[in-house]
Amino acid sequence: MRDPFDVENASGSTLEEEGKEEKEEEIEKEKGSHGLPLHAWHGPTDPEHPTNWPLWKKLSTTVMLAAVTFTISLNSAMFEPATWQVMQEFKGVEREVTVLGTSLYLLGFCFGPPFWGPLSEKFGRKIPMLTGSGGAALFSLLPALGPNVPVILIGRFIAGAFGAAPATIVSGAATDNWHAVGRGINLTVAVGSIFGAPLFAPIIGGFISKSLTWRWTMWIMVILGGSVTAFCAVFLPETYAPVLLKRRTKRLRKSTGDASIRETVEYVLSYSGNIDLALQILNQGAVLLFTEPILVFVTVYQAFIYGILYLFLSAYPFAFNQARHWPVGVDGLPLLTLHIGILISVGITVWYVCNYFAPRVAAANGQVVPEDRLPVMIFGAALFPAGLFWFAWTAANANVHWMVPCAAGVVIGCGMFSVFLQCIAYLIEVYLPVANSAMASNSMVRALFGASFPLFASSMYTRLGVEWATSLLGFVAVAMIPVPLVFFVSGAKIRSWSKNAVSATADR
Predict the structure, then answer these.
(1) Which member of 2, 232, 286, 478 has the lowest number of beta carbons within 10 Å of its beta carbon?
(2) pLDDT tens digits along 144-165
(3) How many CA within 13 A on the CB side of residue 365?
């Protein structure tokens, strides 16, 4: 069964293949000067190319990628419900120190993009992803067994550095085998697993730490992470087309006995050089972050959303435990309402892609206008602060029925995810030629926000109260509303100023 979302023309290309005309020209130049036989894909319908896989294989790949990233993201917040028991076990340790168990894991994510990204281009998606997933599970043994707080925190940081691999690579892996329309829908699932998983941690971790001990929150991550890694090591296919072509070329050399055959991508890399690719991506990402207005404002907006996601891991239990006196574990259940909002956002995104985005791409013969990704983000930008103010003035008021602030969580979740997802989709479309570098800088800033927000969450809510602490976040969210509006109206003009963004001719 073929991909029903493939509305591009026969020359439609994947995320990693677009914007590489210079490499193709270099191939022809080198081929002419050296005369080596080059092996390429057998046309746009080659069945071994990831974009031509049957639908069942694409969907099963998506599910496995989501399982890996879900486990990694769940691990990022699983330590949060255990902080009080850690303080009791290790006398004299302040709460701010125990919160580092979450923050250091997320800080490890900062080291992922410049390291794991280049590895995914050299060795494919599967090996780095599963190395990271397995490493995160393995080093979760340190906090599970650690005799003191420093060992526990070191283990959390190293686990985060390994966990950064799936978090960094999944956007590329999830879009390798889809064209533009399917890419948007598939990205929803992959990003949803990253965004939604931490919200389960206070519930799962709260009940585990209450029923067993806090160390079992880490043992669960060791068992779950190891199991998912082992399963995907057997069943997850490689999705990166250049690596698949390289493997096929090796088989061709063996079957023909002609050792001079080279695949096109390998030949270009061997002559253009692949030294210090990580440093190149890091440097280019830093330059882009300070020179590209679209990247700057969208990254800050998305990082703010990501920071609030981890702040809520403390804010929600605080509101329902301190003000409404719900027991540990139960006080995290209202976070599930954010998941309802996320699911609504997924439905809205799929409806929009199928009924508006896809027809526009088809009418333009497969050409994507980046700003066509923004209407859902504009909707979410307006919805998000409304939900925050709703929650702020109802959550801590015991005279208000608990379902009222829970309903606010649905609005918050829908708004947050609508913004977060479209930030990624928009940046990928705008910076296709330099997507790795752009997303590397974006991921690093986002991880910094996620690591820092939990550090002040408890003190902010204790001093300001639920009402004004959440209202403060709402005021910042209101200030962010113009970001997608400005780019929707003037995005093409702003792209025309850039040497790195896609052509401004891609305009509505």
Answers:
(1) 2
(2) 998 999 999 999 999 999 999 8
(3) 3
